[in-house]
Amino acid sequence: MGIRRRLAEKFVPDRVRSRMNRIGIELGPMGVDPFGFEPTVAKYAATPMEQLYRRYFRVIADGIENVPEGRVLLVSNHSGQLPFDGMMIGAALFFDRDPPRYVRSMIEKWIPRLPYISVLMARIGQIVGTPDNCRRLLNNEEAILVFPEGARGISKTFDKRYKLERFGTGFMRLALETNTPIVPVAVVGAEEQAPALYDAKSIAKFLGMPAFPITPFFPLLGPAGLLPLPTRYRIYFGEPLKFQGNGDEDDDVIQKQIDQVKSSINSMLNRGLRERDGVFR
Amino acid sequence: MTERDTILTTGAAGRLGRLVVQMLHRKYRIIAVDRRPVRGLPKDVTHIRSDLRRRALDDVFRSQNIKAVVHLGLVHNPRANDDDYRFNVLGTQKLLDLTSKYEVDKFVMLSSANIYGPHPDNSLFLKEDDPLLGAQSFPGIRDLVAVDRIVQSFFYRQPNVETVMLRPVHIVGPRVKNAPSNYLRLERPWVISGFDPMVQLIHEEDVVRAMLLALNPGIKGVFNVVGPGEAPLSKVLKILERKTISVPGLIAWPMLERLFRFKMTSFPTPEIRHIQFNCIVDGALARNVMKFEPRYGLIETIRSVRGFED
To answer: In 3-state terms, what secondary structure has residue B108?
Structure first.
């Protein structure tokens, strides 16, 4: 083992290592799963993630026992310009659930084009969000996080905070087809981490990005302005919802089922907003 | 197909072709058609030295009671010329015409999983009905895509012939010399900075075993043929103890293009995509229908490129 590796090992606490050993994902002969997930690499990423989870966002996770064993789709609201909400949901299931679960989330299709980031994402278990990939993981009894609002949700401006955008229908069809329970998740606190005052659509288009938020700190402070405010996160996991069907139903049937998921997320969001008495507390 | 039935094979002069013939001739009578001279074939194999597009092929079909055709005689030439294209497409077409004319029971074709093409948007585990986008970024393999399509349409037009198309992942082994195995044999291979795709390899003998299974009565259709699993490219190179040279993509593309143009390398530039993006296929159909299981493990398969000496 090289010096760099030995130093890096020192920074990984034993609790991270022992949790990583208990996630129950099957690996190939080289310690990598078929999608490129490698727990020995992911544990390095998990260590700073724990600091973010416990110290920075001081996450309160509620109802984590609602996340069952076996295949499950976690469906959450999406906010905050940068996907810290996804990381924190993953951290909650990894650090606060017993036994820990390692969440796979669906990443944008253009990420595999990026050098380094593509490899990092693969090694920490993130998958390009195609229906086939999702189906395969669910059939392997894994936990998958989806944000059906997608870019519409994460890049919305501050005046639309805690208002759910339109949900895509793909997740519901997949859940029906693979007979997967849906656990609704509500994240409170991420909206305020980077309050976007304006979405500069023309700049976004020019840069080929889904949105270009103007916040009080970005782009004013340059890259440092990307740092989220240390708001306190509250993450609520609702009871698993099981829907009947085969995934080939008409859109209006699917839409009714999606509305149930949405209303569950909405009521948890309202509860979270009631329960907190300050963005940072 | 029963023992000692006659099989016509193409491409027996190639390295994989010779292996196929060596394994088939224990069970069947083999007629090997290849326009190249053939060395080291078993004594009981008849070699007919002819271009597939020539009349000699008709005579073979007319005079011999051929029960199956095993077609692996496609030219995989990195410096493909027009005649290679015509050879692959017209040769295959001719074989198919004769197969239906002389009511041959079985047509087995060796295609490749490369024709799906490595692409950043790919789902991992492409299935047999996923689109064949390989030629989009690598025009050099457009004939392989065309041939695959011709055979697929034959499959539907001629239901009496059991047509099997095998699309194996990168074939490696002590004998074969193709782009993936040559790459893995490099002492100091290039890798693209910041990219480390998952790769799938299959041992040459496992491919031949899949072809033997494809000859079984009742087997027909298109099958991805997958070896013992997936591994990141970096780990594969580590097992081979290669010292890699990390080249940023922006430099690698123009550099390799020039090296290739001046004939200093045999790797066509678009092959870079294979060490940059995923092209991983799902082998479930071959496993379930053909009962194919690779015999070589992942590490054995990787090490096999070093040849027989170790």
So the answer is: strand
How far apart CA A238 and CA B206 sit, in angstroms, is: 49
Instruction: State the smallest CA–CA distance between residue B117 and chain A in angstroms.
Output: 15
Does the structure show a pLDDT above 50 at B310? Answer: no
What is the C-alpha separation between B131 and B110, in angstroms, rounded? 18
Residues of A in contact with B297 (CB under 8 A): 29
Q: Please, how many CA atoms are within 13 Å of residue A8, restricted to the half-sphere of its CB? A: 12
Number of C-beta neighbours around residue A181 at 10 A: 17
Q: Of the ranges A241-250, B80-89, B183-192, which one carries the lowest mean pLDDT score? A: B80-89
Going from the first residue of chain A to its last (281 residues), give the mean pLDDT of each consecutive group of 10, the final group possibly shorter. 79 91 89 93 93 96 96 96 94 96 90 92 92 94 94 91 94 96 97 92 86 89 90 97 93 95 97 92 83
First CA to last CA distance, chain B = 38
In this complex, do B248 and A36 lie within 8 Å of one another by their Cβ atoms?
no
* Helix (H), strand (E), coil (C) string for B175-228: CCCCHHHHHHHCCCCEEECCCCCEEEEEEHHHHHHHHHHHCCCCCCEEEEECCC
- Do B192 and A115 make contact, defined as CB atoms within 8 angstroms? yes
Cα separation, A43 vs A13, in Å, equals: 9
The pTM of this model reads: 0.91
Say if residue B309's pLDDT is above 60: no
Cα distance between residue B155 and residue A31, in whole Å: 40
Distance from C-alpha of A249 to C-alpha of B66, rounded to nearest angstrom: 50
Backbone angles phi, psi at A101, to 5 degrees: -120, 145
Q: On the CB side of A181, how many CA atoms lie within 13 Å of its CA?
A: 16
Separation of alpha carbons A45 and B174, rounded Å: 39
Is the ipTM reported for this complex over the cut 0.85? yes
B82 pLDDT higher than 80 = no
d(C-alpha A223, C-alpha A217), whole Å: 9
Give how far B138 is from chain A: nearest CA, Å.
Answer: 17
Q: Give A36→chain B minimum CA distance, Å.
A: 6
Cβ <8 Å between B297 and A132? no
User: In A, which residues are within 8 Å of B235 by CB distance?
Assistant: 30, 32
Contact status of B112 with chain A (Cβ, < 8 Å)? no
